[in-house]
Design goal:
Elements lengths: L2 H4 L6 H5 L5 E6 L4 E2 L4 E2 L2 H11 L7 E5 L7 H11 L9 E6 L5 H12 L6 E4 L9 H11 L6 E6 L2 H5 L1 H4 L7 E4 L1 H7 L9 H4 L1 H14 L2 E4 L17 H11 L2 H15 L4 E4 L3 H10 L3 H16 L8 E3 L2 E3 L1 H16 L5 H12 L3 H7 L6
Parallel strand pairs: 1-4, 1-10, 4-5, 5-6, 6-7, 7-8, 8-9, 9-10
Antiparallel strand pairs: 2-3, 11-12
Helix pairs in contact: 3-4, 4-5, 13-14, 15-16, 15-17, 16-17
């Protein structure tokens, strides 16, 4: 048996597939300001809100912000220290956005992380690399080894200096995804974003970051929308035609913009998106996640390629189209994207692994750089 084709037989699937993606990350304020009353919550009120809503978060990642969006930092840390251990078994990740490297607030954030490290999956480092460069990720990674080496770091690219240093920031194994902080980045570039057009206005820089991330085998998490839709889309709308029908009949302007941006970010190959409002979650999840019908079609494409012995060379006719290995690679990417976003059935996961076992190492790396082979 050729070594290049046999390596998957004895390797952990999680290692090969690279684990799960951040997906849709919901910013969740630890201590929230109540504009109607003109005051912040008490500890008791914030704890009650977390237990009522955050324990059943429908996003892929629940993101507690201790940096720009957090005014009551000390109270927020005490709240998280008290509440994070009380979360029930969950299907989503918990992330903490911490303050910039080596600031006084950063040191306090590390104290919190050390106290609740077993309940945290991700640290999102604000303004990553802007002052000390890649040494920030190096030192934080080394510190995590003695605390919880399973915690990942997601650097936020918020300045042109960080974008230029992106390859250095992504060289560490603790980093599997980076965040494109569109609002701080545009401020640093003196670009005045519009809510409807920010992707076009930042496209050059986003593509530069995606290029570096692809080379490094890392993912990129997309931008935060500021437009808030008035009505949430029901979670039973998951097929593209159903989503379009709901948007046509019930979606307001903001719903259309948020969904359109998420579709474009997914098509560009981003691995997640940050949102600031619960009404954004499902609109963005359906944009990023292959639907059941899309998964079924791509399974049939790959099976047809296997049946015709064309997976590695040759072309097939499928439902009126001529398809060859690049299209088969995209079909496989669709299945693996669904896996990474926790929406692939065990049966289809087993099929995807069977396809991977038929491919040489270099083809797997071309199609799916996120794992380790």
């Amino acid at each position: 048996m050729n070594y290049e084709y046999a390596f998957l037989d004895n390797v952990d699937e999680q290692l090969v597939l690279g684990g799960f993606w951040p997906g849709i990350q919901l910013y969740y304020p630890p201590v929230k300001y109540n504009p109607a009353k003109g005051e912040y919550e008490t500890m008791e009120q914030a704890a009650e809100r977390i237990r009522k809503h955050a324990h059943h978060c429908p996003a892929h990642t629940l993101l507690f912000d201790l940096e720009d969006g957090c005014r009551q930092k000390e109270m927020s840390r005490e709240l998280l220290k008290q509440e994070l251990p009380k979360f029930p078994e969950r299907k989503f990740q918990i992330a903490l956005r911490i303050n910039p490297f080596r600031t006084p607030e950063y040191e306090k954030d590390l104290e919190l992380i050390k106290a609740v490290s077993e309940h945290i999956d991700v640290i999102i480092l604000a303004k990553a690399g802007e002052v000390y460069g890649a040494a920030e990720i190096r030192d934080l990674s080394a510190w995590l080894v003695g605390v919880n080496d399973k915690i990942e770091i997601q650097p936020i690219i918020e300045h042109p200096r960080s974008l230029k240093l992106a390859p250095d920031l992504m060289q560490f194994s603790s980093v599997t995804h980076v965040v494109f902080g569109i609002h701080d980045f545009s401020k640093a570039m003196a670009i005045h974003l519009t809510p409807e057009g920010w992707i076009d206005e930042l496209r050059t820089y986003l593509r530069n970051l995606l290029l570096e991330a692809r080379i490094a085998g890392k993912g990129v998490i997309g931008g935060v929308e500021v437009l808030i839709n008035d009505t949430p889309m029901p979670e039973n709308f998951i097929e593209p035609h159903d989503v379009r029908r709901w948007l046509d009949l019930h979606g307001d302007h903001n719903s259309h913009v948020v969904h359109r941006h998420a579709i474009e970010e997914a098509q560009m190959g981003l691995t997640g998106k940050q949102v600031i409002h619960p009404y954004h979650i499902h609109l963005c999840k359906v944009a990023f996640t292959p639907s059941p019908l899309q998964i079924d079609r791509n399974v049939r494409v790959l099976q047809a390629a296997i049946d015709a012995d064309a997976l590695l060379g040759g072309a097939i006719r499928f439902e009126g189209e001529m398809l060859d290995p690049p299209m088969f690679g995209k079909a496989l990417q669709t299945l693996l994207r669904a896996y990474a976003l926790k929406s692939l059935s065990p049966e289809h996961k087993a099929f995807a692994m069977d396809v991977l076992k038929r491919l040489p190492v270099h083809v797997i790396r071309e199609n799916w750089p996120y794992g380790k082979v």
